[in-house]
TrEMBL record:
Lineage per the UniProt record: Eukaryota, Viridiplantae, Streptophyta, Embryophyta, Tracheophyta
Keyword Zinc-finger: no
Domain J: 375-441
Organism: Protea cynaroides
Protein name: J domain-containing protein
InterPro entries, A to Z: DnaJ_domain, DnaJ_domain_CS, J_dom_sf, TPR-like_helical_dom_sf, TPR_2, TPR_rpt
SMART domains in the cross-refs: DnaJ (SM00271), TPR (SM00028)
Record keywords, A-Z: Endoplasmic reticulum, Repeat, Signal, TPR repeat
Coarse class of the protein's main subcellular location: endoplasmic reticulum
One GO CC term, this protein: endoplasmic reticulum lumen
TPR repeats: 88-121, 203-236
One family name in Pfam for this protein: TPR_8
Length: 485
């Protein structure tokens, strides 16, 4: 009896356990099914025949695209297509995103797949045509860039590529390169600013933005951009080149300026020249290097060399007053009196309150005036430091050479030369007159000059008699008498 009872109880226990296990398994299956319904995006199961789910999917995709979350949008579309390869609108949306990102081959495949499912859809055919235009325009723009036709290349990028592919990183970077090439540095800064808002660690954007600030001579900001890029990638070749190149340029420039302040002008000149060859295209900085070089050369009295540097500075910035002044000083050194007056007058007009410029202009005008009077030293062929005895000897020699009685065949010319020689001696042979002449005073008036200058023959002027010791060589007549000293 006992074994039978025990068997029945054991069998009942087994049946109960099996039933409980079955119920538990059924519960688990239902739980998993409910979780799938609740947790998996219902949009993945969107069908052409289920417009509610499809609308939700495409609304979310559109929102992600609007927020520039292209990867999330593509993930949703990929999942939807994997769940239902016939979901035509998913292909169209995915093609559009690929087109905006200029992933043209993938975009073309998706447009063609959509048109297989929905042939004759004009909107898709139009977008496919736009894709082909953008793809061709990007290739053309890149070729034009390589051939240095920057203006046309920029037109293709702005008017075609970025119109149909506004999220194309390749096109954006090319546009920044083109803006740098055409020296639109503010435009390059603006474009890279947008790129860094999307990705603050974009190394290319940091590099190009730094270059734009560099070419505007905003060197501190440029260095900060290069440094940030190098912190992200210490081995980035272009960033290293830009950073250390700028550091070396600033070091060389400071060394040149320090040498000017120390009076080491020749060394400063060499360092200014060395800095200029480091980047000939850096106009915003080189204008100051040329000006510094010009000033150093003027101080050294190298007027001819200074002219070139001052002119280079003015070629970069024609409104640079200091360059005008320095070029005026350089022209004084090379005795270009009229050119000096012209430059200094222009500088004075731009800065009428600057008394230093006014004084330099007055000096140039005085030099110009002096240049138009007779140079008595030159007429006698003596230096400005000649002694009175040297002046007398030169006068005697020239007077003998040009005495009209000794130049019968060219008497008129001889008389003119003789007048000049006599007038020169009248000034330089008189200590007081010579001092006044050397000061730049106009002493020609009242010297007994008649039209052509000093007249030793009379005719309304003073009558002079000249006697040489021992008489005029070879005899003398004709009313000229003899010279005496």
């Amino acid at each position: 009896m006992m074994p039978a009872v025990l068997m029945r109880k054991f069998s009942s226990a087994i049946d109960f356990g099996a039933w409980r296990g079955f119920v538990f398994s059924l519960f688990i299956l239902h739980f998993v099914f409910v979780c799938q319904l609740l947790l998996l995006p219902p949009l993945v199961y969107a069908k052409d025949g289920n417009p509610g789910n499809a609308a939700g999917l495409f609304n979310r995709v559109s929102e992600n695209v609007k927020m520039k979350r292209y990867s999330e949008a593509l993930n949703d579309l990929n999942a939807a297509i994997e769940a239902d390869p016939t979901l035509s609108e998913a292909y169209l949306h995915r093609a559009s995103i690929f087109r905006q990102l200029c992933r043209y081959e993938e975009s073309e495949k998706n447009y063609k797949k959509f048109l297989e499912l929905k042939p004759g859809t004009s909107a898709a055919e139009k977008e496919l045509s736009q894709l082909m235009q953008a793809k061709s325009a990007l290739e053309t723009a890149m070729n034009l860039f390589e051939s240095d036709d920057f203006g046309k290349s920029l037109d293709y990028i702005e008017k075609v590529v970025l119109v149909f592919s506004p999220a194309c990183s390749k096109a954006k970077l090319l546009k920044v390169k083109l803006l740098l090439a055409v020296k639109d540095y503010s435009g390059a800064i603006a474009e890279t600013g947008y790129m860094l808002k999307e990705d603050e660690n974009n190394l290319e954007a940091l590099l190009f933005r730094g270059r734009a600030y560099y070419y505007l001579a905003d060197h501190d900001v440029a260095l900060r951009h290069f440094q940030k890029g190098l912190r992200l990638d210490p081995e980035h070749g272009e960033l290293k080149k830009a950073y250390f190149g700028l550091k070396n340029l600033l070091k060389k420039t400071k060394s040149a300026e320090d040498n000017v302040n120390k009076g080491k002008l020749r060394l400063a000149v060499e360092e200014f020249k060395a800095a200029l060859v480091m980047d000939p295209n850096h106009s915003a900085h080189n204008v100051h290097l040329h000006l510094g070089l010009c000033k150093a050369l003027v101080k050294l009295g190298r007027g001819k060399d200074a002219l070139g540097s001052c002119t280079e500075a003015l070629n970069f910035d024609e409104e640079l007053i200091e360059a005008l002044v320095q070029r005026g000083e350089a022209k004084l050194l090379v005795e270009d009196w009229e050119g000096a007056v012209e430059d200094l007058k222009a500088a004075a007009q731009k800065s009428p309150q600057d008394m230093n410029i006014r004084e330099a202009l007055m000096k140039a005008e005085r030099s110009l005036k002096l240049s138009k009077r007779k140079d008595w030293y030159k007429i006698l062929g003596v230096s400005r430091t000649a002694s009175i005895s040297e002046i007398k000897r030169a006068y005697k020699k020239l007077a003998l050479q040009w005495h009209p009685d000794k130049n019968v065949d060219n008497r008129e010319e001889a008389e003119a030369k003789f007048r000049e020689i006599a007038a020169a001696y009248e000034v330089l042979g008189d200590d007081e007159k010579r001092v006044r002449f050397d000061r730049g005073e106009d002493i020609e008036e009242g010297m007994g000059m008649g039209g052509g200058g000093f007249n030793p023959f009379g005719g309304g002027g003073q009558q002079y008699t000249f006697h040489f010791e021992g008489g005029f060589p070879g005899g003398g007549g004709g009313g000229f008498g003899g010279f005496h000293f």
